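lol ok so funny story. i was supposed to be doing the assay writeup but got distracted and ended up predicting the structure for this chain instead. priorities right. anyway since i did it might as well share w the group, maybe its usefull for someone
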Amino acid sequence: MTIDTEKSYGVYVHIPFCKAKCKYCAFVSTPDFSLQKAYVDTLVKEINDSTYKGGVVDTVYIGGGTPSCLFRGGLADIMRAVRSSFRVTDGAEITVECNPESVSADFVAECKDSGVNRISMGLQSSCDNVLRAIGRVHTYADYVNAVELLARSFDNISSDIILGLPEQTSADVINGITTVARYCSHLSVYALTVEYGTLLYNSGYAPSDDDIADLYDLAYAKLVELGFSRYEVSNFARGGRESKHNNKYWECLPYIGFGVAAHGYDGARTRFMHCDDIGKYIACSTVESYALTDKDLYNEYVMLRLRTERGISTDGFYKRFGYDFCEYNAEVLDRLKKDKLIVFADGAVRIAPDKMFVMNSVIEQLMLD
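and the output, tada:
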């Protein structure tokens, strides 16, 4: 595998440790902290041995799991490996995820010393009853204390809120957004997906799609009022604080994944994936690759780009695929336009602003079988 010197890569590092498993969580994670040292050692070795070594990196995202619950020094070890293995650009966006219960002065200091310049922290709900119902181990007050501590050292903070949680009300959503807006320049608003095998799934809980849609409209209106702009269906920012790393995913740009269950993409036709078993990863951190078909490439591009406010650039599509998107989909696009589900503007095809929450039904009509 050769490094493309014309590309800037993103780096994603997965930390699979959490104090407790949230009831909606389907990510690979464990509360067994005894594995942390061996895991970080394996992670550092994988980074140091990367076939992309020497490549240019302009975003780093350390997610999980809960990176803030790592042993002190673990984050610094990981960032030293990244910086020694890659040419990290000046001004690169370096994000670390955290949860309120594990944010401390020591964690903040380690982040600052390691060059972290962006923090992403989960709130999910501003109501303690809802937080307990979904298995979160922090309170609303814990979040406020943590974000106030973070805001003393970071001016680029993101938070998450989930819509459709058990016992959730519209007042909870508005209070959560208002709180986040005091401290954060970025907010992710996710619709709850009850995935098979999660504790929430096993409980039989099923949120109402109509209720989630109403909460999304409410959240969108409040965020606009507070000066946030939507740039992807679930992501809002103000002051130019869009997530540069996540934009790589939506724009089909290359990124390298490290750690259990992490994925990567070469920006062309090859994707990479790690095993989803922590013990197996520690024993042998091998990576499997698979080639995308022409249909895969088209479907991924259409699905990911239409999630964004920028939509599909007709020039960009032609440069990538060698044919005209609008001509190829003329009949479907004409019908979608008549139904006011899409708009054409500035050389791009976009989901209509008021139809973003039901975008999946639009995207499906443009996908290849």
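Residues 299 and 367 are 5 Å apart (CA to CA). The chain has 15 helices and 15 strands.
back to the writeup now i swear
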